[in-house]
Amino acid sequence: MYRIMIADDEGIVIDSLKFIIEKEFGQSCRIESAKTGRSVIERADQFRPEIAIMDIQMPGINGIEAMREIKKFNPNILFIVISAYDKFDYAKEAINLGVMDYLNKPIERNKIVSVLKKAMGIIDEEREKRSNELLVKEKLETVVPIIENGFLYTMMFQEYFEEDILNYRQLLGIELEYGFMAVLVCGERQEGNHMTNAVGTSVRIQNSYRDIRETVREYFPEMLVGSVMANKIAMYHPTVKEHFEYNERIEIIEKSRELVRKLKKRMNVIFRIGIGSIRHLHDTLVSYNEALTALIDTTNAVAHVDDLPIKCLYADNYPVDVEKRIFEQVEKGDLNGTITSANQFFDWMEENFASHKTDIQLKVLELVLWAERLAYLSGGMTYHFLSRKEYLPTLQKLDSLDTLRTWFVDKLTEACRRIVVKLEEQSVGVVSQAKHYINTHYTKDISLDDVSREVDISPYYFSKIFKEETGENFIEYVTNVRIEKAKELLIGTDYSMKEICCRIGYADPNYFSRAFKKNVGVTPTEYKSDKHSMGS
């Protein structure tokens, strides 16, 4: 079916052209007509013709202007211009508008049929081209996820040649060198940081993978989405910057929270998202492990590694559990646990490699350096390039395994102790900074977002540690500060209720009165009266 518009101010011309078209092409054409420039524009907007036979000379808006307007909303239309005036200037301007042919009146039947067949041929070619493009797009919808998955897991497993990565990047159009990993995990329900029925839900989301992928793309159009592995889906997002700004991090967390809510609603499955830091393309695995660690270290639906301490990865060619415990205890500031685990690890080395003193020295040095790295990352130690210059000479002088053990345990204990001090300072420092900000800004309309921005922690994580440290949530604490200030003003000044209300950050006196009574048990007026009575 071809849609054809005929525009001419002479009804007889319109009728003649309709007769020729219907006679030659039968039911394969739908025809609309108009007699003025304005009406042809209006009808073309609704009818969306593929071919327009236009008279140049029409009342009001002429054919050239009409074509120019129609071209704005229907750029692929084919114009056939007809005119009783054989003027080159008109023809030239029409050709500049992309007119397919220019015919003079009176028009021969064979000529109009020939031109229409030519136009229909062009339309058929365009339709076939669009059909092929849709077919290619449909195939890409199947192929692209496979390519994305190949890229993701090749980078994560670090089993690649540079040529492979280059090919993947070319196929996926990845020009940026940096990006972050995220991991989507699901379960029947969440118990602490654990998702239950991982196997069952992984089967369910396999069948809904396409919907999950499309939902992710609604919030993160540039996100590469891997396949389902167990109850996890690895994702990668290229970035221009090499680190997150605060606002960017919060925006990603917000979008991720909306995403997990939408996925839960669509799939009837609980989802969580862990987000790693921005890393170079070749450090994708580090970002992925950070994303997993973020989920392990918190129970939040969305966990960003920049809000949490980063845990280390461990090799598997020695007692992983004991070695892991050492660093967990060092990182947590567990001095007794660190000493116990360090001795257990040394026992293993002594039992299995007592005759390989040099190898034990190397392992001791490796673990001590790694423990100190945790202290550096936590801010518990300041790195100086020459601070370890005595380590190798000292180790080489330690003749017995007993003295080597003592040095090993002492160094780990020292790193642990430094972290203890820093953790205490950090936790107390953030809350102390937040309290100071609240106590100096309570007269203003401050929010959780304002304070979390001040301490440079996302609102969700800040809210958690604030409640843990103070025993109150943010709103309760701010309200209590304001009420205490109100009490002081009620007793020690003659300010009106409206003035006191404004001075403690409330815009509505009625709301202030209700909040005061809820916290104190009496209204501000009753409180002031009672205190004055007691004083007198």
Structure characterization notes:
The structure is a single chain. The protein is of the alpha/beta class and 536 residues long. It has four domains: 126 residues, Rossmann fold, CATH 3.40.50.2300; 132 residues, 2-Layer Sandwich (Alpha-Beta Plaits), CATH 3.30.70.270; 105 residues; 100 residues, Homeodomain-like (Arc Repressor Mutant, subunit A), CATH 1.10.10. It is built from 21 helices and twelve strands. The strands form three sheets. Strands 2-1-3-4-5 form a five-stranded parallel sheet, with helices on both faces. Strands 9-10-6-11-12 form a five-stranded mixed sheet. Strands 7-8 form a two-stranded antiparallel ribbon. α1 links the parallel β1 and β2. α11 packs across α15 and α12 runs antiparallel to α13. It is flat, with a radius of gyration of 37 Å. The relative contact order is 0.05.
CATH architecture identity of the largest domain: 2-Layer Sandwich
Number of strands: 12
From the spread of the alpha carbons, the general shape counts as: flat
Q: At the fourth CATH level, what is the homologous superfamily of the largest domain?
A: Reverse transcriptase/Diguanylate cyclase domain
Proportion of residues in extended strands: 5-15%
Calculate the mean pLDDT score and round it. Answer: 85
CATH fold name of the largest domain: Alpha-Beta Plaits
Structural class: alpha/beta
Ends: how far apart? Answer: 98 Å
The domain count comes to 4
The residue fraction in helices comes out at 55-70%
Q: Mind summarizing the main beta sheet? A: 5 strands, parallel
Uncertain segments: 311-315
Kindly provide the name of the CATH class of the largest domain: Alpha Beta
Radius of gyration: 37 Å
- The number of helical elements comes to 21
Strand order of the largest sheet: 2-1-3-4-5
